């Protein structure tokens, strides 16, 4: 295994001919955790979905390499196999597929034929990780996300992270709708993954999560690109003072993208 390395250069992404992400640059090296913070409607989720290969988003410009390979040329399943993982802002509910079945299929889809995880090992690992995340055993046999509360869905995303052991995880607003105890559990799960061979991109509106998951670098996203970068102290200033000072400093009036009719 080698350390992950993501490099995004001058990336522009459109949806239905509207340009949402505009000339975006970011490099994440092995072992690094980056946070992207920003107001709503600035293109954060669009970036995350496009990196995973969501067909709705069109890449109009720029390059993305993952461990030196052209990520944009890869199919969705190839991206997952290469070690990319996205915890979505709004995880879907899937009736008829249990959480355990989903996880086992997802693990095996990322492995070579003949190298499938044994049932014993799978159950042992699942038990251990669900215990760590303080999830009730019944969640293994429930349909994927069906009837899960907001907080349970987020916990379940972290369970997927721990079971799939990706090289680079993107968490899109994993903190939304979590109370402080659930937030701590989610952070504990994520921190289990940390190491030289794992990198993370945490997308969040609020600084709170970053008290428990310490980022190496913090970026502010507005108008579909990174407008400011710094260390953890930048997140603290955003928490204390909001986003207005960044807009003033940079002369930005409307930080959002794709809503040209907005005043
Ligand atoms: N599937 C979609 N269809 C139409 N517009 C979209 C879609 N996804 C995102 N957008 C638009 O792109 C802009 C940025 O959205 P998003 O990436 O979700 O921002 P953020 O995650 O920063 O809140 C918004 O104006 C949103 O309406
Ligand atoms: Mg979003």
From TrEMBL:
CDD domains assigned: ABC_FeS_Assembly (cd03217)
Domain ABC transporter as annotated: residue spans: 6-248
MF term (GO), any: ATP hydrolysis activity
SUPFAM superfamilies xref list: P-loop containing nucleoside triphosphate hydrolases (SSF52540)
Pfam families to which the protein is assigned, alphabetical: ABC_tran (PF00005)
Key words of the record: ATP-binding, Nucleotide-binding
Entry annotated with the keyword ATP-binding: yes
Entry-linked InterPro entries: AAA+_ATPase, ABC_transporter-like_ATP-bd, ABC_transporter-like_CS, FeS-cluster_ATPase_SufC, P-loop_NTPase
Family under the similarity heading: Belongs to the ABC transporter superfamily. Ycf16 family.
The name this protein goes by in its record: Fe-S cluster assembly ATPase SufC
Lineage: Bacteria, Bacillati, Bacillota, Bacilli, Bacillales
Gene this protein is translated from: sufC
């Amino acid at each position: 295994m080698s350390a992950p390395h993501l490099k995004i250069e001058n990336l522009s992404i459109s949806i239905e001919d509207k340009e949402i992400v505009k000339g975006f640059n970011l490099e994440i090296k092995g072992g690094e955790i980056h946070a992207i913070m920003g107001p709503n409607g600035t293109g954060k989720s669009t970036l995350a979905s496009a990196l995973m290969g969501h067909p709705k988003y069109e890449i109009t410009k720029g390059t993305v390499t993952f461990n030196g390979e052209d990520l944009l040329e890869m199919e969705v399943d190839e991206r997952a196999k290469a070690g990319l993982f996205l915890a979505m802002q709004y995880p879907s509910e899937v009736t008829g597929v249990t959480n355990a079945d989903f996880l086992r299929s997802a693990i095996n889809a990322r492995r070579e034929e003949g190298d499938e995880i044994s049932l014993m090992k799978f159950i042992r690992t699942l038990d251990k990780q669900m215990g760590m995340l303080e999830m009730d055993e019944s969640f293994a046999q429930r349909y994927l996300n069906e009837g899960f509360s907001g907080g349970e869905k987020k916990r379940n995303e972290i369970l997927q992270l721990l079971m799939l052991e990706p090289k680079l995880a993107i968490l899109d607003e994993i903190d939304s709708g979590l109370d402080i105890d659930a937030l701590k559990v989610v952070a504990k799960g994520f921190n289990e993954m940390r190491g030289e061979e794992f990198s993370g991109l945490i997308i969040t509106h609020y600084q709170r999560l970053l008290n428990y998951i310490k980022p190496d670098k913090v970026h502010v996203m507005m108008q579909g690109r990174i407008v400011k970068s710094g260390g953890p102290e930048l997140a603290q200033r955003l928490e204390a003072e909001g986003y207005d000072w960044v807009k003033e400093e940079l002369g930005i009036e409307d930080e959002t993208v794709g809503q040209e009719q907005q005043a």
